[in-house]
């Protein structure tokens, strides 16, 4: 028995179309962010990445990843992780003051760059992270959905996008679900779209570094021959500033 379509192909086409839109609409902003990150690398600064709830999946994508930047310091608090308590993680993200506590422990400098991942972009934690960093003179990159923020309750008074230096828009619809297309109830797309944006940034960064002669601190996979040896110098350089590397 043969069929004309593969099960799930409608969803696959939907995702491919969405990612094409994400790439096209963020082209200029990605160039701007790549310049910010390259400047931070040249200044031996840090790339701090933060999120809450399922946006912590994006933070994991940035940290200690084969081919990723070694100068990334993940910013988080156990209360923000759903696996440590789903209901309490939602409450923590909406609690004012937690961002200040987390950033105080991490440290922040004007030659660093803070990435805040939050698709809704309206809760206190992501918004206050951006506000604290902006007040410290540190550039803030918001990876968010402008359309989702527009329809979400403004719990922090402003949205993450309104506070950020540069906005990368993952174009996620309100509610995140995408399937079936006419009345979506499942298949959240925020993780896929946000990871795609981060790796689009990495591609631009590698190209710009090659053009300018900058040596990027990139991890090698620990599961390939020579990977551990290649990473040893990076670990020595960054481990005192990134405790999560221990």
UniProtKB/TrEMBL annotation:
Residues 33-211 form the SIS domain. PROSITE patterns: SIS. It holds the Pfam family SIS_2. InterPro entries: RpiR-like_SIS (IPR035472), SIS_dom (IPR001347), SIS_dom_sf (IPR046348), SIS_GmhA/DiaA_subfam (IPR050099). PANTHER family: PHOSPHOHEPTOSE ISOMERASE (PTHR30390:SF7), SEDOHEPTULOSE 7-PHOSPHATE ISOMERASE / DNAA INITIATOR-ASSOCIATING FACTOR FOR REPLICATION INITIATION (PTHR30390). NCBIfam families: PRK02947.1 (NF002805). This is SIS domain-containing protein.
């Amino acid at each position: 028995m043969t069929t004309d379509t593969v099960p799930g192909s409608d969803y696959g086409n939907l995702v491919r179309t969405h990612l094409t839109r994400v790439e096209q609409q963020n082209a200029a902003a990605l160039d701007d962010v790549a310049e910010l990150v390259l400047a931070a690398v040249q200044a031996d600064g840090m790339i701090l990445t933060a999120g809450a709830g399922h946006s912590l999946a994006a933070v994991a994508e940035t940290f200690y990843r084969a081919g990723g930047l070694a100068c990334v310091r993940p910013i988080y608090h156990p209360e923000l992780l759903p696996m440590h308590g789903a209901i309490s993680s939602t409450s923590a993200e909406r609690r004012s003051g937690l961002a200040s506590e987390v950033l105080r422990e991490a440290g922040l400098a004007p030659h660093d760059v803070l990435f805040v991942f939050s698709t809704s972009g309206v809760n206190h934690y992501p918004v206050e992270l951006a506000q604290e960093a902006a007040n410290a003179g540190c550039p803030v990159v918001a990876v968010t959905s402008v359309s989702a923020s527009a329809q979400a309750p403004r719990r922090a008074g402003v949205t993450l996008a309104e506070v950020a230096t540069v906005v990368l828009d993952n174009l996620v619809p309100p509610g995140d679900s995408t399937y079936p297309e006419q009345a979506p109830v499942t298949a959240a797309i925020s993780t896929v779209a946000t990871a795609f944006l981060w790796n689009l940034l990495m591609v631009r960064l590698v190209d710009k570094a090659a053009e300018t002669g900058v040596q990027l601190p990139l991890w090698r996979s620990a599961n390939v021959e020579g990977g551990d040896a290649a990473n040893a110098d990076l670990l020595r350089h960054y481990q005192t500033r990134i405790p999560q590397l221990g």
